Amino acid sequence: MNEEASKSSSLNGTQKSALLLLGLGEKHAADILQHMGPKEVQDLGMVMAGLTNVTSEMMEEVMAEFIATIGNQTSLGLGSDDYIRNMLTSALGADKASGMIDRILLGRNSKGLEQLKWMEPKSIAEMIRLEHPQIISIVMSFLDPDQAAAVLSEFPEKVRSDIIMRVAALEGIQPNALQELDNILEKQFSGSSNVKSSALGGVKKAADILNLVEGTIEQSVMEDITEVDEDLAQEIQDNMFVFENLNEIDDRGFQTLLREVASEQLLLAMRGIDDGLKEKFFKNMSSRAADMLRDDLEAAAPAKLTDVEAAQKEILTVVRRLADAGEIVLGGGGEELI
């Protein structure tokens, strides 16, 4: 954390959360982390490990903001599935809310499948490699897109396109079948299950996974799918969210995104993008920050295309997280992409 980040107002949400956990002490922080998912724990852990020059003023501001926020919260309706369903449906509409509802309730009740989210992609690939392709597609549909993308990369090239096509064709699975799969996995991890939802897979899920694999893998898989089913390939392509689609985010959402992206990551990701998108980045920064970024881009040494693509996909992962949390909204026809 540099000298400019001397006050909590300059910190993003993850950094504030990390400071708060550090201030709560080891035991209380551990109790809170137990209720978080693997990605959240990893993100917070990395930020906590990198925090330096933390002043008492910063800690006091973060604590005060937390207390003020908690003071405005209410427990009414918490713990009610019907309340959650009705609230999200009213806020987002039936189509957009259904996927989020399923993720919330299925993720909460599923134990065996949920354990996979804490595993390394290579370990997951080894565990399911010999399963029937349809089982693999169900598991991939349950994982978060970035984790599923990493798992897909561990499979041989010749089976990747088949997996993605099966994910795209998966419109759902009977609850008893999903519970049976959950029970099988749970016996390996030890736990209990109570699966209540079955909405997994689909073209959008396939597109989400391909969004986050390495560029060469994405191209190879899309070429294979096109040869087998050109219409399906086009449908997946239409649902993919690429870096250029950031133009669809409104200015307020763009500013929210920029607070979550490290300057080094942004500098790498902006190599080679069109001038219109560059200007969108610049206009949503302070004049000083925009000028510094322009200078850095002009002075930057050439970068490998794979590094640039990786940085862009990391930012797209942040976009998906913020969109799922309702913190940003994509404009036009792209609102269903994430």
Number of helices: 20
Q: The biggest beta sheet, please?
A: none
- One letter per element, helices H and strands E, the order comes to HHHHHHHHHHHHHHHHHHHH
What overall form do the CA principal axes indicate? globular
| CATH level-4 homologous superfamily of the largest domain | Flagellar motor switch protein FliG, alpha-alpha superhelical domain
Q: How confident overall, as mean pLDDT?
A: 76
Query: So, CATH architecture of the largest domain?
Result: Orthogonal Bundle
CATH class of the largest domain: Mainly Alpha
What helical percentage do the residues reach?
55-70%
How many domain regions?
3
Which fold does the CATH topology of the largest domain refer to?
Answer: Annexin V, domain 1
- How far apart are the termini? 31 Å
> Rounded to an integer, what's the Rg over CA atoms?
21 Å
Annotation, overall tally of beta strands: 0
Walk me through the structure:
The protein is mostly helical and 338 residues long. It folds into three domains: 8-71, no CATH class; 110-239, Flagellar motor switch protein FliG, alpha-alpha superhelical domain (Annexin V, domain 1); 243-336, Flagellar motor switch protein FliG, alpha-alpha superhelical domain (Annexin V, domain 1), CATH 1.10.220.30. The protein has helices spanning 13-24, 26-33, 38-50, 56-71, 81-92, 94-109, 112-116, 121-128, 133-142, 145-154, 157-169, 175-189, 203-211, 215-228, 230-239, 251-258, 263-269, 275-283, 287-299, 305-324. Helix 1 (13-24) crosses helix 4 and helix 14 (215-228) runs antiparallel to helix 15 (230-239). The two termini are 31 Å apart.
